[in-house]
Write a structure and sequence with these properties.
heterodimer; A: mainly alpha; about 0% strand; B: alpha/beta; Rossmann fold; six-stranded parallel beta sheet; five-stranded parallel beta sheet; 15 strands; about 15% strand
């Protein structure tokens, strides 16, 4: 059998169906009504403008993170340290708000500074993982994982230590920032901030164009396909890996800044909200193709937000969304592997 | 004609002012869906379950009420969500009154109350609606409810000091704030009273150590592990551990040590039936009975008598375990007959006016807190700035 686009789609659809089946089995095993559960997730994600806007709130950082990860995946790197890079983005953005928030500068300028600081923080942390790999020979997966722990510890130390509330170290985070330093939202009730949506869409567009339409993107791909060959052909390999780390960290840092300025309005212990790991899953699910990042990230965000209904309405644990997301990625990867074994690549006629 | 116009104008103005002036939400009428946001699992045998049970009491006592709830409302368990967003999910399910049942939710509850002036909001354990409080921020749709569990912590400290063989009592503390300082200190006051007045020992020979884990319950990798802290206490000669956290690790560890033949005890917190986990090692539990206060709030929301306020409800001294009248209680566990009688005697003394928040009392750093004969005001107790002299442990988070 030949590997054609239509057959590829067939495999993807098959994987989704299988994932749904497995989740259904899990639900039945938990003595829960599967249809009602799925219906509640959909209702909880798109049942009203309020919940849909919450989906978009989750979509923004997820899409930003996925955008960054597409660059590191392109160059063949597993940037597991993405969580830490979001956290550092959040920390640096908080630092900027604390330093410049009361300086008399206009809130817009302070917020821009916070975003720039977030970018710098995320980028530096990513380059640290890159430096460990390039100069220390530490595999980026282990280096990144280690740096995630360090970032979490640093964040908690700041919240419980130097940046604690007056007299109280609280898990609920630092004191909320002055309201004028919150990112503007659609309505006072909403958490949805249009500028952050624009930033996220711009991020994925930039990454798409970078990979598809620039020499830099082409070189990244070359390094990713075969680093040795790329090196022999004159592409500075480690510099391109470093650059992809730096850029990925930059996008993760923006996600951290969004979390701090638009969602929580303070620094909290779990400021990354697990979007880094979720972003890795999205990137794998779309087979590292930027064109599909936005809809699939939206789907994952919808699952996260929609699943809040499960404990409220059906008394089910909302981690079911995680089960669905995880099995989905597993089956798509499995489908990918099976496809490569079963289907032959179409012959290129020269 | 002109008079009529002036009258119409005045009426319009009054109506407009009425609309814009902040006011409590309109009466909910004969049906009220209540949303409950809990910080831990609804069946944690601790703080969250006590709140959950309080709402079950409301459902039984107030016809027309319905409950929707979400538990584990903290950013570790539900990453990516905010507490106000979870409150909104409950509103989407019909809730007209939302209870944010943790101090940890303060910022988000305020955000929610401001964004939803049409929803009745209870922030349990908060002080924002206390006119005489330090954090007064009037919101017409918000009520703060808290129980004076300090008295029952005194009973806990008393039972601990009457039972200890080593004279060393450990206090497994959550995070450091006004509330936890005053609760740990209350336990110490009860213990000291028992030690000096019932056991006739010198005050200096009582060791009372507080170790804070960093939050109300264990979050692996974030807080200290309460199991480990309890073990450390038992391994270093502290034979009674009073728990100040929302979950029951102290009792579980006491049971484990006891099974190995060590004579140790523990006192859980928050939830009336928390002693069931540690039969034989649990001396009793100081607990909250949220039902009656939540019933009052629900009725006020339904009949339109809701006025924002702060309430700090005490025990019903005639029977501290009266489910309909007492906001706090002490459920006795494994006590010797003598200690059990002494506990009753001590409760009786407090009922008749014994006040352990009376001077001379000194703060941990030695500064005078209450002069001889001076009784602490509610504000002095609520905002206790340090632990008391005689207690070992951190007073302020560094």
């Amino acid at each position: 059998m030949r590997d054609t686009p239509s057959r590829r789609v067939l495999f993807q659809v098959g994987a989704v169906v299988l994932a749904l089946l497995v989740t259904t089995v899990v639900l039945i095993a938990a003595k829960a009504p599967p249809l009602a559960a799925f219906a509640n997730i959909v209702q909880g994600a798109f049942g009203s403008w309020d919940v849909t806007s919450n989906v978009l709130v989750a979509w923004v950082p997820l899409l930003l993170v996925t955008s960054g990860l597409l660059l590191t995946f392109t160059v063949g790197l597993w940037n597991i340290g993405i969580e830490g890079q979001i956290i550092l983005g959040g920390i640096f953005a908080t630092w900027a708000l604390r330093v410049y928030g009361s300086s008399g500068m206009s809130p817009t300028v302070v917020l821009i500074l916070a975003f720039v600081a977030g970018m710098v923080g995320g980028s530096l942390w990513a380059m640290l993982a890159g430096a460990l790999k390039t100069f220390g020979g530490v595999n980026e997966i282990f280096g990144g994982l280690g740096l995630n722990f360090v970032a979490t510890a640093l964040n908690i130390w700041l919240i419980f230590g130097p940046w604690k509330r007056p007299g109280v170290a609280s898990m609920s985070g630092t004191l909320p920032f002055d309201q004028r330093l919150w990112m503007p939202t659609v309505t006072p009730q909403s958490m949805l901030s249009v500028p952050t949506v624009i930033i996220a869409v711009a991020a994925i567009a930039i990454v798409y164009l970078m990979i598809q339409g620039t020499y830099f993107g082409l070189r990244l791909k070359a390094v990713g396909k075969n680093a040795k060959a790329a090196y022999i052909l004159g592409i500075p390999t480690w510099q391109h890996m470093m650059a992809s780390f730096a850029l990925c960290g930059l996008f993760a840092g923006v996600a951290g800044a969004v979390q701090v300025t638009a969602v929580y309005h303070r620094l909290i212990p779990s400021i990354s909200s697990g979007y880094g790991y979720l972003g890795l899953m999205v990137a794998m699910l779309i087979n590292y193709k930027a064109a599909f990042a936005a809809p699939v990230a939206l789907f994952f965000a919808a699952l996260n937000v929609g699943s809040i209904q499960l404990p409220i309405v059906l008394r089910l644990d909302s981690s079911l969304a995680g089960v669905l997301q995880g099995t989905l990625v597993l089956f798509v990867l499995l489908g990918h592997g099976v496809r490569q074994r079963v289907l032959k690549k179409p012959q290129v006629v020269s | 004609m002109r008079k009529t116009m002036v009258l119409v104008l005045l009426l319009t103005l009054t109506a407009a002012v009425g609309v814009f002036a902040q006011s409590a939400p309109p009466a909910a009428g004969s049906n009220l869906t209540i949303g409950l946001v809990m910080v831990g699992p609804y069946n944690d045998h601790g703080w969250s379950e006590a709140n959950y049970d309080g709402l079950q009491y409301v459902l039984a006592k107030v016809p027309g009420t319905k409950l929707v709830y979400i538990d584990k409302a903290n950013s570790s368990d539900r990453p990516g969500t905010t507490v106000s967003q979870l409150g909104e999910s409950l509103v989407a399910q019909g809730a007209k009154m939302v209870i944010f049942s943790s101090d940890d939710m303060t910022d988000e509850a305020i955000k929610f109350a401001k964004a939803h002036p049409d929803i009745f909001v209870i922030l349990t354990s908060g002080d924002q609606q206390w006119k005489e409080g330090k954090n007064y921020q009037p919101l017409p749709n918000m009520i703060n409810i808290m129980g004076k569990v300090e008295y029952m912590k005194m009973v806990a400290g008393f039972a601990a000091a009457m039972t200890t063989k080593t004279g060393k009592i450990g206090f497994l503390g959550p995070l450091i704030n006004d509330e936890t300082r005053r609760l740990a200190s209350s336990a110490y006051l009860g213990a000291r009273y028992a030690w000096v007045h019932y056991r006739h020992r010198s005050v200096d020979s009582l060791k009372f150590k507080v170790t804070w884990i960093g939050f109300w319950f264990n979050i692996p990798g974030v807080t200290s592990d309460p199991t480990q802290v309890a073990d450390d206490f038992f391994n270093s000669g502290y034979d009674v551990v009073i728990s100040g956290i929302d979950t029951t690790e102290a009792v579980a560890e006491a049971a484990k040590f006891s099974a190995q033949g060590k004579k140790v005890w523990a006192i859980p917190y928050d939830y009336k039936n928390a002693i069931e986990e540690g039969k034989g090692v649990s001396l009793g539990v100081p607990y909250f009975n949220w039902g009656p206060a939540y019933v009052n709030a629900a009725k006020a929301a339904m009949d339109g008598t809701w006025v924002n306020h702060f309430e700090w409800n005490g025990p019903y001294w005639k029977n501290i375990n009266d489910p309909d009248k007492s906001a706090v209680g002490f459920n006795k566990g494994t006590l010797t007959r003598e200690v059990s009688e002494d506990v009753d005697r001590f409760v009786g003394q407090m009922a008749r006016g014994l006040d352990l928040w009376e001077g001379p009392l000194y703060l941990q750093d030695g500064t005078e807190y209450l002069k001889s004969g001076q009784k602490a005001t509610d504000q002095q107790i609520w905002y206790l700035p340090q632990l008391l002299k005689g207690m070992e442990g951190q007073s302020v988070s560094k």
